[in-house]
Amino acid sequence: MTLSTYRTDARRLLHDPNGDVWSDATLNAFINEAVQKRDRITACNRSLQTLTLVIGTDNYAFSLLTNTRVFDVVNVNIITNGQRLILARLSWSKLNARVRYLSPSWRGEPQAWALYGQSTVYMAPAPSIAYSSEWDCCVYSAELTADGSDDSVNYPYTEPVKYYVAYLAKLNERRFDAADDFLARFDKACLDTAQATRGIVPNAYATR
Fold it and tell me: pTM of the prediction?
């Protein structure tokens, strides 16, 4: 889905096909805000990032990752002896109480991690060697700037965007009833998209 297509879809909802009310620049700003909102709600845009851990360092900011658009982390793995070890995700309090109480002076193979604040991950125990790690991250899409710029995700995750654009437009007009209607459509489109994911059979031949 390109920026120009998103704009056309939004104009159709706003009954402004010729751009008499909403300029391209304004709608483009609304579209990019809507894409970020979609990414945050659905977590549809993922990126597997790699990071080499530092001996004795137990905290790592998102800014250390290659992708600067990371806003959340789902899983963290470390690679040790040629195998991936999935670290347990704990709350900050539980990480402190159960694993981190002697870290970073106690070093070893990291076993668990917790998110601290908006953009820092703590691991415990602090790494004893420079482990290679993999981070499963939620990221924002790159900003759409040119008419031919293509959204980084595919249908049906493109469907909610036009409704949020229309919501922002009506909110700007202070037409709050219409804005609420488009926001409800956006929420439903996000929910429908999430529910469209098919179930997974872990092992069709597993014994009961």
Answer: 0.88
